[in-house]
Amino acid sequence: MKDGDHLEISADDLVSLVLRYNPKTNQKLIRAAYDYGREMHAEQLRHSGELYFNHPVAVAAILTEQNLDDATLITALLHDTIEDTQASYSEVAARFGSEIAELVDGVTKLTNLQLNSSQTKQAENFRKLFMAMSKDLRVILVKLSDRLHNMRTIRAMKPEKQAQKARETMDIYAPLAGRMGMQWMREELEDLAFRVLNPEGRASIIRRFINLQKETGDVIQRITGDMRLELDKAGVEAEVFGRAKKPYSIWRKMQEKDQSFARLSDIYGFRIITENEEDCYRALGAIHQRWRAVPGRFKDYISQPKTNGYRSIHTTVSGRDGKRVEVQIRTVQMNDVAETGVAAHWSYRDGVRSNNPFAVDPAKWISTLTEQFDAEEDHEDFLEAVKLEMYSDQVFCFTPKGEVVKLPRGATPIDFAFAIHTRIGMACVGAKVDHMRVPLWTRLKNGQSVEVITAEGQSPQATWLDIAVTGKARSAIRRALREEDRARFVKLGRELARSAFEHVGRKATDKALSTAARNMRCDDRIDLLARLGSAEITGREVVQAVYPELVPKEGAKVDAKRAVIGLSPGQYFERAFCCQPLPGERIVGITFKGRGVVVHAIDCDRMSAYEAQPDRWLDLRWHEGAHPAVYGATIELTLNNDAGTLGRICTLIGETRANISDLQFVDRKPDYFLILIYVELRDVAHLHSLMLTLEAESDVASVSRYRNMAHDTSETPA
How many angstroms separate the first and last alpha carbons of the chain? Predict the structure, then answer.
């Protein structure tokens, strides 16, 4: 294309957009970047057939809406040059300086990340994304604006590419924009992705909006006028803005609340912008005097700001016809941060860097977001921590001294303890909320005062992982458990190895274990034993690594008397009748004096009775291999009360090689009866197979495993 061919935004247009908020902009450098980018992209075209250079110019224009600095705008103009043209890093640095070259290189690296790939790869790429962000957050500002323009023009792509980009936007870029405080961008990204992923759903919401407007008229204009009237009466100078929420935001609320559009009330949002903080509270008073506040929907983010600097008062009131409306009240400066989030640090107002007291230092913000990620070695754990941090809303609690602790919604006293200090979290044994002792799994609420109770010698429990929600707490708990568990796993692994080697007539000597470790690529024999104890590898695999010719054939039966591994020599066991654990299920042992060990399924409800007696717990495993069908389990059946039904059921059970040892009628009715059948099985897989067979029988109304939690296994005191 020739030089005079149409460009949607000229250099003059772009400079005008910058001059609007920064009269001292370096016009010469911006024009030079514009010309250089246009020259480098020259004949390149987008999927739509328009000049490719229209895209980087549009990205720069989006960034001017956030009042950003010259370096960020120039980076936007050049963000694809190193990747897609003959331009090089050194040439960009020579022409525009090393700061801009670094930013362009950072955006290029982000562009090369395939964030929609497998979970392991995704976690690895998230690490790279946060590393790039930690160097200079402006890299992600350019990338988010780049993604926004691509989503605005996504129709030119192939359908499968559209779906891929939309999912990536919904999963990663939209929540990231929200976490950075750029709520307007989050909403638009979500809605553009929604348009691709569920066009019918979006269209139905828009149609309902149109119908609602026909029925009720311009609700926004009426309520805005009412609010202005009330503020004038109270002598509060403020601007009032109203809008309907984005289709995706409404769709998500419909899904979360399982409500139809007609029943969804808060579909309109209103914003009151005041001159100072005092007027925010005066405006709130005026609104609450005129309309009834909805309980539980008030949040004061002015006195308790979010970590990304967001400050605002949120309230929901019942407006005309009982319809709920959301109202946000904040000052002009707070609104700047609310619009641009962390980007407010670089924004300009009237030619100077905006000295906004509410803007967050990006370096501090990114450190709070990433401090726990380096500790996470496991990809799934890392990904979980990242997504939790990105999606989390917050609650604000107080220490006994009145200091504020910010936590994600759903946080518990354990999260609170680790937020204060890792050492406090490690030693936590209890907590008081508003001076009352509460369980550690209690969900904290806004404004509560929390006191952590600690004790020397305490260490994190495995159950804490089910209670904690913050990445910092979960990372610290996992590290502590790994260190504590290693010694335990090594001990259990040694017992597993001894038993496995004895099965083939050999001894698990240090030399044999070292040989196995070398063959299985473990660091050493201790690492091998730890992995064996934690069930990462099996005893069979260890033996096979040393004596492949001695490993028993798959069909060899396991002796029922030696079916459990982890017992001391001479120690005997019995299965708990309450949960009737079967081979193949995870088990734990509880010691009883004069009675040996009672083996329970790890999820047995009765285990809570022994929580305070950890010295009685034993780590146990079922022996690998084929077990004989001698392990009793109980099945609860509801059968049609027809002639011959029970006989057919008994025949079916026999055909699955399960033996019926007892049968008990629980309830008899004219049309059905409820029975308990005691069967002897090989393992849990045998049980599932039997239940599937019975479920397929037309005369069986329901089938389930029966566990008798009323049966007490503690008659003999320890």
Answer: 89
